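Protocol step 4 of 6: structure prediction from sequence.
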Amino acid sequence: MALNYQVKQGDCISSIAFENGFFPDTIWDHPNNARLKEQRKDPNILQPGDIVFVPDKRIKELSEPTDQVHKYRYKSVPAKLSLRLLVNGEPRRNTPFTLEIDGNLTTGTTDSDGTVKVSIPPDAKSGNLTVGTGEDQMKFALDLGRLDPIDQISGVQKRLNNLGYDCGIADGTLNSETKKALQAFQSHSGLPANGELDEATKSKLRQTHEGK
C-alpha cells in the first residue's frame, strides 16, 4: 500500500526506492513528491524529517505457456558514487584507489579530473576509500547518504569538512570554527572572506563540492 515515508539520517531516494521495490525515478518523479523535489533539488540530499510519498506497487501480468520453463531477471539499479580528490587544490589524477563497501572491494584509477566513479548498492551506508600508495597514500572513511541540504548549517559544515576546511563536528551551529573555515574557503575561492554564510558563498560551496 502507498505510504508517506519519513526520512531518517542516511536515507536518500535511491535507498528508499530500493527498500520498497521501485526505481529511484519512479519515486522522485511522482507528482506527490513534486514539492519535495523542488525544495531539495538533488535526490541524494534529503533532510531527516522530510516526507517522501511511496506509491502502491503495480502488478504486471504475463502470459506464458505452462509447459515451458521461464526465467525472469530482476532489474537492479545501482547508485552512483562520485568523489573528486584534491591536494592543495589540484586533482589527484590517474591515481590507483581501493574502495570497500559492505565488504566488497573495487579497485581502479582516478580519472584526469581526480574523480572516483563507481556503482554501489543503493542502500549502502558506509565505506572506506584508500587512494595512492606509499607515502602518498590517503585513507577516507565514508558516511554515505548523510549529506544534509546546503540550506542547513550542518550541510554547509559537512561540505566544508569534506573539502578540507575543518569545522569540527557538524552540529548545525554557526560557531567560531565554522566561521574560520568559511573564511578560508572564501579566500581560496576569490570571495570576500567575511565568514558569513551568504548566497554567493553557498552557491560556490555547492559548485565546488558537487560540481553544480
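Step 5 (inspection) to follow. The helical segments are 13-20, 24-28, 34-40, 153-162, 176-188, 199-210.
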